Amino acid sequence: MDFNDTPEEAEFRKEARAFLEKHLKLKDGAGGRHRSSDDFLKRAKAWQKTKAEGGFAQITWPKEWGGRGGTAMQQVIWNQEEAKFDAPVGPFAIGLGMCVPTVIAFGSDEHKKRYVEKALRGEEIWCQLFSEPAAGSDVAGVKTRAIKDGDEWVINGQKVWTTGAHFSDYGILLTRTDPKAPKHKGLTMFIVDMHQKGVEAKPIHQASGGREFNEVYFTDVRIPDSDRLGEVGAGWKVALVTLMNERLAVGGSPGPDWKEIMDYARGTSSLTDQAFREKLADWYVAAQGYNLTKFRTQTALSRGETPGPENSIGKIITANQLQDICNSAIEMQDHFGIMTDSETMPSNALFQQSFMWAPGLRIAGGTDEILKNIIAERVLGLPQDVRVDKDVPFESLKQG
């Protein structure tokens, strides 16, 4: 394992840092998670365009798609440096990290010409339409129907927990096209225009105060067959590409870690509490273990190798630790911990906001249980769970 940049990587890091210093300010504290205001979207689009013009929007993408044609390690370096600045990146994480790569992998040349550059430059925002009221981590259980009508498909159904649907322009939509096939084999993926007739997004008011998630309803929505991604009935194959990108993207928790709570504890008596000191040590060891795991991945990327399966553990570790840290910080604040005013509370109420967000992070991109199954079966090689619905037609499965 090598912790140092190569000379080429060091030069790229210097270039990236200079670009960021020219256009942004360093973070001066912890911010909130509410990322759907009109002002924030305006700033995010402007920053995305600036990155694209500077060649930093999607570093590994080919130049013909508006990327830099760079290495995966350069993308890692950019992410590390950008995270130090007040960069409004949230609205594009799903589109550029999950949706557009799926379009690139399965779309036509016309799709790539139409959508990729506009998304890269921040002109259009994408969302991912997978989860439903009865199909969360079990994505293959979706019920949203797509019925062929000539050269079009008619869509009816509901999605839920769709991040950014209310401000998105397009989305990738997983539907059921053959209810007589087993649930993994009767799915088809489409590109959907979020502004067209019959599409309705309703923001969900979260406990944290944010409104990033949505219910999305489809009523007789017509999608041309030309906007299908992959073959009819091969939607699960397409979805797996998206899901692997999603689970990598949500692998690190976007909230306070041991450093933030230790800084806060310095102003209280908690650092003299043996029980708290032991928890702080546990958080530190877990964080360092995860960092070393990430270094292993980065070393592989730096050498042009394919990383191993170690990324699978990231979300399980960081999501649970985020929840534990925030809970401990709020308990340290005693009865003041119920206050969420960012102007008066320590760390701009980051602990309160992240505490409300943390349980969702343990669900997004696959629940803890789903990821543990993946690690058990695909990393450790343990026997698979018994799946009684594997070869049963979807319409014959018991519902409710």
Automatic annotation (TrEMBL):
GO terms for cellular component: plasma membrane. Residues 233-380 form the Acyl-CoA dehydrogenase/oxidase C-terminal domain. One of its GO terms (molecular function) is flavin adenine dinucleotide binding. Its cofactor is FAD. Keywords: FAD, Flavoprotein, Oxidoreductase. Transmembrane segments: none annotated. The keyword Oxidoreductase applies. Residues 127-221 form the Acyl-CoA oxidase/dehydrogenase middle domain. Residues 6-123 form the Acyl-CoA dehydrogenase/oxidase N-terminal domain. SUPFAM superfamilies: Acyl-CoA dehydrogenase C-terminal domain-like (SSF47203), Acyl-CoA dehydrogenase NM domain-like (SSF56645). Gene3D superfamilies: Acyl-CoA dehydrogenase/oxidase, N-terminal domain, Butyryl-CoA Dehydrogenase, subunit A, domain 2, Butyryl-CoA Dehydrogenase, subunit A, domain 3. The keyword Oxidoreductase applies. InterPro entries: Acyl-CoA_Oxase/DH_mid-dom (IPR006091), Acyl-CoA_Oxase/DH_mid-dom_sf (IPR046373), AcylCo_DH-like_C (IPR036250), AcylCo_DH/oxidase_C (IPR009075), AcylCoA_DH/ox_N (IPR013786), AcylCoA_DH/ox_N_sf (IPR037069), AcylCoA_DH/oxidase_NM_dom_sf (IPR009100), Mycobact_Acyl-CoA_DH (IPR052161). Belongs to the acyl-CoA dehydrogenase family. This is Acyl-CoA dehydrogenase. It comes from Henriciella mobilis. The lineage of its organism: Bacteria, Pseudomonadati, Pseudomonadota, Alphaproteobacteria, Hyphomonadales.
